[in-house]
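Entry 14. Structure prediction run on the chain below.
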Amino acid sequence: MTKRRILKLSGPDAGEFLQGLITNDIKGINDGLVYAAILTPQGKYIADFFLSKRGDDILLDIADTHADTVKTRLTMYKLRANVSIEESNLHLHRGLGPAPAMAYADPRHPEMGWRAYRETPQTDDTVDWTALRVAHQIPETGIELTSDSFILEVGFERLSGVDFRKGCYVGQEVTARMKHKTELRKGLACVSVDGVAEPGDPITKDGKPVGTLLSRSGNKALAYLRFDRADGALTARDATVHKLD
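Output returned:
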């Protein structure tokens, strides 16, 4: 499981400050967990995270690899806003089934279980989260979600990670234009894999590039594909790949 850090945003301006930066509506934390991202002005992915309410504070649950980048970015945007951004002493706990007390259902998909934030580290985690992600097309920070990603191509609308009615945020114009296209030409898909291939291997058809193999679990994987070339049998290293419906 990807190592996570839990940041804490405090101060009377914290909610309004985040609302102008993130892809989702911060007001959703009054009802549960909010999944969102922060983008470049060009609409490209910087980081994704979960937001929740804890007293008067807002918790930001983010991959450890991206936490410092987001802290720096938030500090850059803070200006005169009355908000502080600091580390918490909390740890992420995850599990499947109904959410226990003081835990939140994962908003991306019902089969992704729950998330809770506790003062002790989680010591027992036997869930195959990669298999679940592949089965339900859930992108992972640093694998499917990279600095080249546009969030609609990796499924953020389906994952309840973007709100098109909340108003402006950084990267909103590009995201809105992609939303109103007839269809996306490239994006994340689930594929079958028969043979030897690893995440990062290029996918081709008749020698032409089609995309990249990403997270794999058994004979299924996530892949970033050009949809106009993704029909029929594809190749990744020594494996035959087929796009699944």
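The longest strand covers residues 45-54.
Filed with the rest of this week's runs.
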